[in-house]
Amino acid sequence: MIGSTEEAILAQPARLLTQAQREFYFENGYLLLESVIGNDWLTRLRSAIAEVLDRSREMTVSDDVIWLEKGHTRSDPRLLRLNCPDVHHPGFWAYATESILPDIAADLVGPDVRYSHSLLNFKWAEVGQEVKWHQDIQFYPHTNYSPLSLGTLVEDVGPEQGPVRAIPGSHLGDVIPHYAEDGTWTACIQDQDLKSLKVDEAPLLMGPAGSVTVHNCRTVHGSDPNRSERGRPLLVNTYSAADAFPYTHLPQRSTNTGTIVRGKPASQARLDPRPCPLPPDWSGGFSVNNAATGEIRGDAG
Ligand SMILES: O=C(O)CCC(=O)C(=O)O
After folding, report:
1. Which of 67, 178, 204, 301 fits 236 for a cystine, CB–CB 3.0-4.6 Å?
2. Residue 15: its H or E element
3. How many domains does the chain have?
4. pLDDT by residue (tens digit) across 164-220?
5. Is 292 domain-assigned?
6. Is residue 293 included in any domain, yes or no?
7. Which ligand 1 atom sits closest to the C-alpha of 299?
8. Rounded to the nearest whole angstrom, what is the distance from the C-alpha of residue 297 to the centroid of ligand 1?
């Protein structure tokens, strides 16, 4: 469904995407852009990742920056996630601002683009876990629903590696609570609410290294475990229109949060009347322990 906000965005000249791609995103809430990132960037990102991996060899437990996967050892490092990569290696911030990512965002949210946050999800070979069906906006409500996440496939991703899956058109439905009946935060949609969603119709957003996935903050998405022998590093960068502001503590927040990466700052917030359930209070931090309960892990991508 293309409303007046989307029409105004479409009326602006595109920097990179075709009009058909922009319309597809507005209608479906996701997009897959195959092989759009060149080898120069991929080499830079892989070298930054190798440095992070080396840093993790000294670790035995997760900290706020690096979350370790089961079985992590010095000689066989396994990472679950690097939080806020933008402030932990200059290559990640350069990529977030100087690559085509902010141009893709501008084509989908309008010319004025605000950087929100990044994370690097590893999904290690054979042990990388499922990410349950969820919407991102419940982790970080904003004054409007422009936030979107761009996932860069740093390596080739096939069906067995647990690619992201997104339910077409689900961004036009409700924002579904991520709480159990007893009020416990679960970071994902409850089984009874999944019944009305067409999870079987969700395509696998996979492709060669250098492909970019896009999903809107209301789009229901998740991913299967990695059953393959190859890792699946996914660098997630989240942007919004410049006039979208978070009104709760962000789970991922860095000194770069709020930077205008294309266009100009907003002079006022744009308010969408559609409600959003509040997340738990993340002001004390968002760690591997409180991101979700038990084995359930959602993703504030
Ligand atoms: O790493 C994944 O498979 C999930 C990513 C995700 O849920 C997100 O970017 O919001």
Report:
1. 301
2. none
3. 1
4. 999 999 999 999 999 999 999 999 999 999 999 999 999 999 999 999 999 999 999
5. no
6. no
7. 7
8. 10
